[in-house]
Amino acid sequence: MAKRRIIKVGVVGVGRGRSFAYAAEHAGLKLVALCDTWEQRLERLGRELGVTTYTDYDEFLAHDMDAVMLANYFHQHAPFAIKALQAGKHVISECAACHTLGEGVALVRAVEKSGLTYMFAENYPYSAYNQEMRRLYRKGEIGQFQYGEGEYVHPDPAEVKLARSCGINHWRNWLAATYYCTHSIGPVMFITDTWPVKVNAFVVPFDEDDPTQTMHVARRDTAAVIMLRMDTGAVVKSLHGGLRGHQSYVRIHGNRGLMENLRVGDRNMLRVHKEPFDKKRGEPVEKVYAPDFPVRHERAMRAGHGGGDFFMGYHFAEAIRTGEPPYLDVYRGVAMSICGIQGWRSALSDSATFEVPDFRKESERRKYAEDDWSPDRARAGKGQPPSMLGGNRKPSKEALALARKVWKKQGYTGK
Predict the structure, then answer these.
(1) Parallel, antiparallel, or unpaired: how do β-strands 247-254 and 257-261 relate?
(2) Do β-strands 247-254 and 235-241 pair in parallel, antiparallel, or remain unpaired?
(3) Which of these, 125, 201, 293, 339, could form a disulfide with 190 (CB 3.0-4.6 Å)?
(4) Distance (Å, rounded) from C-alpha 230 to C-alpha 356?
(5) Distance CA 313, CA 76 (A)
């Protein structure tokens, strides 16, 4: 048997990137370098893993490696990815793929020009139950897709959120409510192989009676609901944000049955339901079972996010070795990501309908190549949107005091 090629990778960002670094080995990748501007954390992880560390991204890209894993800030992935592609590196990029429509255009063009592998690192499609739902759907188990739901509801105490978002202008503290949508939209697209074409979004506003919000320094709303029209005519609801009731949930209605992971008990269990008039003779109306991963079960179980981190690395490595684009390629990554951008336009326009442009088409790219619309305060200017429905609020003195205390404990010394 021929020996598999060793793929040397570097990771950017040692917060979320720590999980990437540990998952790399299980996925058949060799970690050789780390890059971050937070030197204390960078050096500590570098010593722990025995790899070279960099605070300068250009110097990092000059390291002898084949690929870059981007786990830097949410709104900075596209520029970093483009630079890595130009340096001849394959790229796997965390969500979001892009922060503006113009960045989405530039990223797609850069991937096409490079001829290199780009994979979108959306890990939720790779949970065991989502991979099983994809398998069943492709078999025709529930017929044609009609309606789906994806939920990523993630509440936390203020102290936990502050520890995760050190600095008053950390992206988690100003990101508009619709943007963090790929964990809920991604699995539905993955299972059904459909694409979003239209979006309407609704926002649950900031809650002045919720201490998890008022004792945080965030200038963002509570949660968002995005309604999508897909290219097949199916409808999808995406719910994400800080509501009570922590949940990752996917529900797929076909015209011959229903699939969903459970909402109670073991939420990794899968429920498949058929009406008595749709099922085959001898087939039960309902099945509830724990699905397995399609491959590499033991390795997947040792990685983070329910096996999702392993499968991202696994499919990235396979795409590099074979030269075949991964399923979560740049086009799907950008499509998922711009649902959040267009969703924010919708929310600020009384939930009016906006199109989700298809950047597989150059004719569509030309319309949006200069679009830099963003709630990022660093890009503030005429025509730029706020980060929350009521405009940008000021954190209270109590919230700022708590933030400084938490950030100091984390070793963060900035503002």
Answers:
(1) antiparallel
(2) unpaired
(3) 125
(4) 10
(5) 21
Residue pair 330/105 in contact by the 8 Å Cβ criterion? no
pLDDT tens-place string over residues 264-287: 999 999 999 999 999 999 999 999
Six-digit token string for 214: 């008022």
| 39 contacts: CB under 8 Å, gap ≥ 6 | 55
Cα diameter, the chain? 67
Give the list of residues 6+ apart from residue 307 with CB closer than 8 angstroms, or none: 126, 127, 128, 293, 300, 301
CA distance 130 to 296: 16
| Per-residue pLDDT tens digits for 149-197 | 999 999 999 999 999 999 999 999 999 999 999 999 999 999 999 999 9
Q: Is the pTM of this model over 0.90?
A: yes
Q: Residue 311 phi/psi, 5° resolution?
A: -70, -30
pLDDT at 304 over 60: no
Span 233-257, mean pLDDT? 98
> 137-153: per-residue pLDDT in tens?
999 999 999 999 999 99
* Phi then psi dihedrals of residue 248, to 5 deg: -115, 120
d(CA 210, CA 242): 11
Q: Which domains are delineated in the chain?
A: 7-120 (3.40.50.720), 124-296+330-379 (3.30.360.10)
Q: Quick one: tokens of 106?
A: 């530039």
Question: What dihedral angle (degrees, nearest 10) is formed by the CA atoms of 200, 204, 206, 209?
Answer: 170
Side-chain half-sphere exposure of 279, counting CA atoms within 13 A: 13
Looking at the DSSP assignment, which residues form a beta bridge with residue 35?
A: 12, 54
